[in-house]
Amino acid sequence: MEKGQLNKLQSFLSTPKNIVIVPHRNPDGDAMGSTLALCQYFNSKNHTATVVAPNEYPEFLHWLPGSENVWLFDKQNKQSKRAIENSDIIFLLDFNALHRVGDDMAKTLGEYKNDFAMIDHHQQPDDVAAYLYSDTEICSTAQMVYHFLEMMNDTDSITKDIATCIYTGIMTDTGSFRFRSTTSTTHKIVADLIDKGAENDKIHNQVYDANSHNRLLLLGQALINLKAFPEFKTAFITLSEAEKNKFGYQKGDTEGVVNYALSLKDINFAVIFIEDAEQKIIKISFRSKGSFSVNQFARKHFSGGGHDNASGGKSDRSLEDTITYFTSLLPDYKNELQGSYEE
Ligand code: 5GP
Ligand code: MN
Hints:
Layout: H1 3-12, E1 18-22, H2 29-44, E2 48-53, E3 71-72, H3 77-85, E4 89-93, H4 103-110, E5 115-120, E6 131-134, H5 141-151, H6 160-173, H7 184-195, H8 200-208, H9 213-225, E7 227-229, E8 234-239, H10 241-246, H11 258-262, E9 269-276, E10 281-288, H12 294-301, E11 305-306, E12 310-315, H13 319-329, H14 334-338
Parallel strand pairs: 1-2, 1-4, 2-3, 4-5, 5-6, 8-9
Antiparallel strand pairs: 7-8, 9-10, 10-12, 11-12
Helix pairs in contact: 2-5, 2-6, 5-6, 6-7, 6-8
Bound molecules: guanosine-5'-monophosphate (5GP) and manganese (II) ion.
């Protein structure tokens, strides 16, 4: 964050404030870990902070400390709107544009009279925040929350619960510390979080070893549906609404499934297409290895965006037509895809 902005924010926060903290729609581990960490930090500093999430988050994150006080904008609409109206400032975490909270909540935020602060690691943040801390090199917003507390000279205030939330955000957004964005700084921070009480084995267990039988069967179906195109170093997975229903789909069940396509040898570009009958769209996740930017690909062809190696988007076509369209794009990227990742 630019020095002038940081000084202004510090002086604004020197007296107790009502603070609302907002993650993106369909919040993931980083969105929930970072918002809950910051929320508990502010509450320990005599502020009154509340996390208002646009909608429900996966069951495997419900154990996170502070989770019991999260309000869902779509389900607890009145209380959420009141919290927003009564707030002195809103922190936007882990997203870069207001529309990422969904149409309804974006409308409410669009009418907000006080300032926004944004802490985020996605590319090309919209110009909405009076206080902006944006860094696309950092692996997770949760790590940025740690750096934010460093800027406030206050990492000593990190409790076991706050450390647990930050650890969870870093762990989930780095694929358990393996993506290229994981640096030695990340590991030093994680070491400090463990010193401050984060129980790494328990956190991994609660997030990754909490599968239902149905979730594994849905994964089985996804793997059966996987198709690879070695000439484009590309593989994709599809899941139809009928397949989701057959295995009792719950929010979060498809999280991480796209990585199985990327785990194929010599595949640098992996995609999952998931039919969403409720929103009448195909939700798409893109992942890549190396220099092929799925952020640009998602922006250009599927109204989305994200990071160079992990992005998302959507399609208004049917599942079948979306696949046809997607495969028709691949020849244009043949050279880029073949040169994307050298061992
Ligand atoms: P996921 O595939 O896990 O939903 O998302 C991967 C990354 O891309 C996340 O960092 C997410 O915030 C971002 N992302 C997902 N969908 C969209 C989208 O529609 N627009 C933008 N700008 N980013 C997205
Ligand atoms: Mn993130």
